[in-house]
Please model this.
Amino acid sequence: MSPRRTVLLVEDDPDLLRFAQVTLRLGGYRPLMASDGQTAVALARKAQPSLVVLDLRLPELDGWSVLETLRAAPETAQLPVLVLTASAGPADQDRALAAGAVDYLVKPVSADALLAAIERALAGSAS
Amino acid sequence: MNEAVSATRLRPRPHAQPRARGAEDARPQRGQLFRKYVVIFVLLVGGALLSSGLIELYFSYQENQAAVVNLQREKARTAVVTIEQFVREVQHAIESTIPQSWAADVVSPEERKDDFRRLFRLAPAITEIVYLDATGHEVALWSRLTTNQVSPEADHSAEPSFRAARGGRVYFSPVYFRNESEPYMTIAIGDSEPEGGVTVAEVNLKLILDKVLQIQVGRAGYAYVVDESGRLIAHPDISLVLQQTDLTVLSHVRAALAPPQPGEAPPEPAMIAHDLRGRFVLTAHREVDPPGWTVFVEQPVEEAFQPLVWSALRTAALLLVGLGLAVLASLVLARRMVQPIQALQKSAARIGGGALDQRIEVHTGDELEALAEEFNRMTERLRDSYAGLEQKVAERTRELADALARLELADQHKSDLLSTVSHELRTPLGAIKGYATALLRFGPRIRPAERREFLESIDRAADRLSALIEDLLLAQRLEAGRLPITPEPLNLAEIAEEVIAELAPRAVDHGFVCSLPPDLPLARGDSRRVRQVLLNLLDNAVKYSPDGGEIRIAADAYNGHLAVSVQDEGLGIPAEHLARVFERFHRVETGITRTTRGTGLGLAICQGIVQAQGGRIWAESPGAGKGSTFWFTLPRWEDE
Model:
């Protein structure tokens, strides 16, 4: 078994954050958690996770800015970002993919769908 | 809309070209107007001058002719009187030598000769006189030319003078000439008895006829005498007389000598005729009786009418001058009349072409100026109404644009609200879905404590969802004005105590200070809704003062209203958010977690409820971290 890969969870709703944390742990990942944009960017640089699961509506620094900041910094430019949001608009989806997100999930999302999307994203970035 | 359309129609069209060309076409017409005026003026003035000149000329012709003719007639009459007097004197002188019938036989020839000699002294014109006895033989003779011896054998009984004068009659012979130039006439007077003798005298007419010839009419006028047969007996041109010219070749002489026909007008006593030389002359005549001659006085027409010609020339000159003046005056007048009209026409054409700022400048001080002023006023009104229309169109356009912008804004708000609502719904839904699927997938691998935590989270999310839906519906009903409000008298102190009692168990770190005056008047409102508002405000006060502290509730009465305030010592509100906290889903970033947050609709609902009861709501805060105060008002209860 390969070493457990680190996934950074960025979510301001505590219930959803807790759900994702438990699901990832049970799914075989090592979850890191941030509930605002500033913390997320700092953790991504420091911990060098394999993947970021990013909510778009965040306090302090919103998801869009986090995505932009990660893409702009060389050490995080290749870090795959999976957007998980309650914003269902197709315009937001196009914008997120154009900004460098590897996938776009709309809440509510099941534990299975979340894990499948994470696996897909990691496989895509590995190949 | 209609105004906009008519404004477009009224707007000066860019292709006013045809009208401008029309103005060009009108130019020759303006020239025509000028010419028309000039012609009318000239005709009027010239016609008046011409007719007055002609009338004057006609009357002066008449008067002149009458004057000349009168003069000639007068001269003729004078001549005739002279001749007649001469003839009568001669006749009387001869008669004085004729003795009365009873003495005829006793008068000797010698005595007769004495009488004759005496007669010569009395009548110098008689050159010879002879008495013939009843047989026509000479009895006595006295002559200035020959010896005074009678020729007793000579028989004169066959001579016309003897035969025509016998029986007391008087005979005048035709004029005859002696010495080739001296006119003579024989006058014979018979004795009174029928078979008596006759006295025959030869009379020299030279002196008397010379008197006639001395008659002067003007410079070229002259007189002449013809005898009964039309033969010329006296004329300034003696050769004509000696040639014994027959003047009946001249029609006026013939007409004058002809015995008046019954029923025919007598010949005109003065008329224009040809003289012997073929000239036109003005002629007048008068008969001399005795001896039956006719005196003519004639004057060449050109002389007789000389004053008339002068008068005509004068009139013509005046007419010319008058016409010249008329033309000048008409040019000036027509110019003065036409110029303002041209100015009017030109300006009107320009205004018609759309130049509404055009002013017509006509300063004639008459109706034309008044017309121009009227025109200017009209143009001004037109311009004003244009401006008004344009302004109205601009206003309407602006209003439409504003309305459209408002609509778009409302549309944007609605779409924003919808996406916010869906976002707010998806978040608890995401928790329910996530925990439920995690439980399903990992079932036994989830520890019992976690399982309980998951289920509690699901329960909380479901509660939040239903609260959100409740609040959305309530907000919608408030916005549509469909929330039933039942006004009743409210004791605010009681309500505040109840709400504090309800909230206190959940807020152990907070102290509630309720300082409502005991004599606070009753408020007018729906008790359930007022309770809801107060609960919401107090709940917020608790939530946004996470470190605890005092929460003060106060109330006061003013101007028919009651104002209630809820003051906390919590996080406060930045100034830029004070007005917006009542908007739906407006969030002020604070350090508190989402779990403690409400639906985001609480304050919007509070505002809707307060306003529906006739009050208002607002927030005050000295700044972030310094607490905040929420106020709301209600009308006082008035006893009905």
